[in-house]
Amino acid sequence: MCGRIGQYLPASWLEAFFKIDTRFVENREPLYNAPPTSDLMVVRIDPKTGKRVITTMKWGLVPFFSKTGKMDYSTFNAKCEGVEKAASFREPFKSRRCIVPADLYYEWRKLGPTPKDGKQPYAVARADGAPLLMAGLWDAWKGNEGVWLLSFTVLTTAPLPDSKMSELHHRIPVVLSPEAVPTWLGEEPGDLEPLMSPCPDEWLKMWKVSARVGNVKNTDARLIEEVE
């Protein structure tokens, strides 16, 4: 799964990386420990212009047919297996796919078979220093007052067997290559199923971080530092 994200690269860097012409004008602070319900930057195709844009969206997909405008169940992650048939995700999967760029995400490794054994938090990032291009889906929900809520989910898959990521957790985000971005966003035709496979193990690196990351009130840059 993916339950915490670090997103601290500036929007200007992402605009250059994704070749986006429209400027992202929001003044955002770096996010080192963003939990679900946070507002994060997402790359998508603007339905009005057909061009790539960076949009701020709420993490935790609220489907367009929701009666409450809230996550009625956990939708901050979506399993790629069967996503094209799931009620909350099948329409976004058809035409509202997006990229969630992240500097890293956090995962907790169980230290033993019982809860008393505890967990060790790790940070996971691209080994080459590039951002993680996490495959996502987005949706738009319209409230009674005509205000639109844009929200997203991160797709997950099973890690490769006997990989270092499989030792950390049984689910990992779907991480795309830069070459896969046009197909995932719908700019180019192509088969989506192969894109939802686990990325090569060598793409990723992980390191131990402080247990302070477990408290969402802790948001400082020291959270990403390696600990013994």
Helices, strands, pairings?
Elements: E1 5-7, H1 11-17, E2 31-34, E3 39-45, E4 52-59, E5 77-79, H2 90-95, E6 97-102, E7 104-110, E8 119-126, E9 132-142, E10 148-157, H3 164-168, E11 172-173, H4 181-185, E12 204-208
Parallel strand pairs: 4-10, 5-10
Antiparallel strand pairs: 1-2, 1-7, 3-4, 6-9, 7-8, 8-12, 9-10, 10-11
Task: Spell out the key features of this protein.
228 residues, mainly beta, hypothetical protein yedk fold, 5-stranded antiparallel beta sheet, globular
Largest sheet: 7 strands, mixed
Q: Mean pLDDT score, rounded?
A: 94
The succession of helices and strands, N to C, reads EHEEEEHEEEEEHEHE
Count helical runs: 4
User: What is the overall shape?
Assistant: globular
- Low-confidence segments, given as residue ranges, are none
| CATH fold name | hypothetical protein yedk fold
Oligomer: single chain
Q: In whole angstroms, how far apart are the ends? A: 24 Å
Name of the CATH first level: Alpha Beta
Question: How many domain units?
Answer: 1
Radius of gyration: 17 Å
CATH architecture: Alpha-Beta Complex
> What helical percentage do the residues reach?
10-25%
Class computed from helices, strands and strand pairing: mainly beta
